[in-house]
């Protein structure tokens, strides 16, 4: 890992840590530098400001989700695709739970919700074009996508808010909600 990657990682971790303590607007570049043990000049060598840092962090998180979604090869039918999508999404949230809790719960920031929604929606569009089902003749893809996407993303966010269910339980419940073809 190069020093640039290490600096980004340290600043990302500092950002998440600070987001647990206070709202994003209250965080100063000096707070980030102090928490990450990075000089201000080093911070500004990598980012224009704290908004640039947040944008870079969200882009990296989005890219990570895209890479995880691309591993979903089960596209024989709509149900199999959504079952795998649910597993990938819940695992992604579980692996980044601190991040999502900090940004969504403590800061009520819709940017990350928009990122999740758009990333998964784009994957759904791409994948559903490859699937042929009788439903396609009856219901337009965009209606199917919005219906399942809303349920999956909202339940994922609800799980972050109230995580007394185990990851496996959430996946099982969502699996039961998906009808057979």
List descriptors.
181 residues; mainly alpha; 10 helices; 76% helix; elongated
Structure description:
The chain is mostly helical. Helices cover 76% and strands 0% of the residues. The protein contains ten helices and no strands. The mean pLDDT is 84.
Average pLDDT: 84
Structural class: mainly alpha
Q: Calculate Rg over CA atoms.
A: 19 Å
Query: Could you list the spans in which at least 5 consecutive residues all have pLDDT below 50?
Result: none
Q: How many helices does DSSP assign?
A: 10
User: Can you give the helix content as a percent range?
Assistant: over 70%
Shape: elongated
User: How far is the N terminus from the C terminus?
Assistant: 46 Å
Strand-and-helix sequence, N→C? HHHHHHHHHH
Largest sheet: none
Strand content: under 5%
Total strands: 0
Oligomer: single chain
Which helices and strands appear, and what pairs or packs with what?
Layout (H helix, E strand, L loop, with lengths): L2 H19 L7 H8 L3 H7 L3 H21 L7 H18 L1 H9 L4 H19 L6 H4 L2 H21 L5 H11 L4
Helix pairs in contact: 1-2, 1-6, 4-7, 5-9, 5-10, 7-9
């Amino acid at each position: 890992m190069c020093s640039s990657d290490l600096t980004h990682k340290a600043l990302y971790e500092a950002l998440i840590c600070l987001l647990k303590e206070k709202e994003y607007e209250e965080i100063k570049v000096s707070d980030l530098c102090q928490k990450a043990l990075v000089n201000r000049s080093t911070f500004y060598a990598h980012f224009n400001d704290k908004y640039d840092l947040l944008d870079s962090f969200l882009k990296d998180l989005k890219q990570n989700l895209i890479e995880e979604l691309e591993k979903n090869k089960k596209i024989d039918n709509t149900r199999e695709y959504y079952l795998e999508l649910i597993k990938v999404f819940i695992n992604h949230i579980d692996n980044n739970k601190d991040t999502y809790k900090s940004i969504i719960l403590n800061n009520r920031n819709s940017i990350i919700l928009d990122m999740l929604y758009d990333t998964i929606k784009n994957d759904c569009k791409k994948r559903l074009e490859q699937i042929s089902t009788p439903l396609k003749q009856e219901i337009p893809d965009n209606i199917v996508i919005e219906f399942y996407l809303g349920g999956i993303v909202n339940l994922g966010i609800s799980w972050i808010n109230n995580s007394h269910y185990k990851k496996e339980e959430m996946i099982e419940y969502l699996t039961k909600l998906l009808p057979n073809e």
